[in-house]
Amino acid sequence: MKPFIIRLLVFAVLWAGYLYEHFQHASKLPLLLFISACAIGVYFFLSITKHPFFLFILIDFLILLEEWLSPLPKNMYVLLLFLYLYVEAIFQLSIKKFRLFTAVTFLFSAIVTLLFQNKEVEWLIAFAIFSAISIVLNEYVYEREEQQEMYERLLGEYRRLKRLNYETERSARLEERTRIARDIHDSVGHKLTALLMQLEMLSICEPKDEYEQLKMLVRDSLEETRQAVKALQTEEIEGISSVLQLIRKLESESHIMVHFTTKQGVLTVKLSNEQNIALYRVIQEALTNAMRHAQSREIFVTLGKSAIGDLEFSIKNRIAEPKPFQFGFGLTNIQKRVKGAGGTVHIFQTDCEFIVQGTIPVKEGFND
């Protein structure tokens, strides 16, 4: 919003200087003031309309209308207004519309110059040269925007494929770990159980201290086997460590800067497996959303602990100017994840930041 206000002020100052040159014509001053107010009002709507072409033409018409009502030779402010308007149009109009805008402006200017400006042809020639240069600049700007848009699409597709590849590898690793855990459970676990039963029978038939020691050793081995199987069937990383690994991965691959802050008490929070997955996915989706839509490469992630022991999270990124946003797949998935974990989430934006913040309740038995 601030850049537009500055542009509006510059346009108003240029027009005020242009109007000052006409103060000597007191008889037409009220009409000139009315036309000036209309021009500044039309310029105000340039930033909020999706089709500014007709507004640019209208501002041109108002400038030339004042020149027709009160023609002045060698009025520098007319040239400055046209130059400023051309610069605005270069960045806002497509190639086809800008060419049409240039043609219409030059045609109107030629008519006014030849009829009311004592046939100052040299000014018209200079204006024609400037119009040709402006067309080239507009083509260059439009092509750069297309290239930037294509680059953003390719970058988004690359990140999507990287995440898909990572998820595929991760699923393959988890599947292999699950297979190994099942094999250990079915082979080693069953054999240890059978060995324990045989030792029980032998100790009944022939009580000996050696059998009791062997039974204790088998029980310990069986318990260690169960713990190993359980460890293989769980996620590779959990809790805060998974978030750290995600941030490290995104920083190295996407060249973003993540400011990660943990408040007092959050590192002692023990989450269930469902809560771990929800926290990881929420931060992952929020970081991905920030990378896709934020102009800044800095993202601020904060984890804390509320007064009642719940886990609080906040992901913020700076924005150049607030624009209406829609809940796409990423933001909707964040809401579903947090809701599935029994928490709450708020997604909103201020004048300078886009914020995703919420809480995940820590279930009893997981936070001591």
Q: What's the helix count?
A: 10
Q: CATH topology of the largest domain, anyone?
A: Heat Shock Protein 90
Work out the count of structural domains.
Answer: 3
- Model regions low in confidence, pLDDT < 50 over at least 5 residues: none
Strand order of the biggest β-sheet: 1-2-3-5-4
User: Would you identify the CATH architecture of the largest domain?
Assistant: 2-Layer Sandwich
Number of extended strands:
5
Enzyme class: transferase
Catalytic activity: ATP + protein L-histidine = ADP + protein N-phospho-L-histidine
Keywords: ATP-binding, Kinase, Membrane, Nucleotide-binding, Phosphoprotein, Transferase, Transmembrane, Transmembrane helix, Two-component regulatory system
GO cellular component, one term: membrane
Defining key terms:
single chain; alpha+beta; Heat Shock Protein 90; 5-stranded mixed beta sheet; 10 helices; elongated
Description of the molecule:
By secondary structure, the chain is α+β, with helices and mostly antiparallel strands. It folds into 3 domains: 2-119, no CATH class; 160-233; 239-360, Histidine kinase-like ATPase, C-terminal domain (Heat Shock Protein 90, 2-Layer Sandwich), CATH 3.30.565. Helix content is 68%, strand content 10%. It contains 10 helices and 5 strands. A hairpin with a 3-residue loop joins strand 4 (344-349) and strand 5. The protein is elongated, with a radius of gyration of 35 Å. The mean pLDDT is 77. This is histidine kinase.
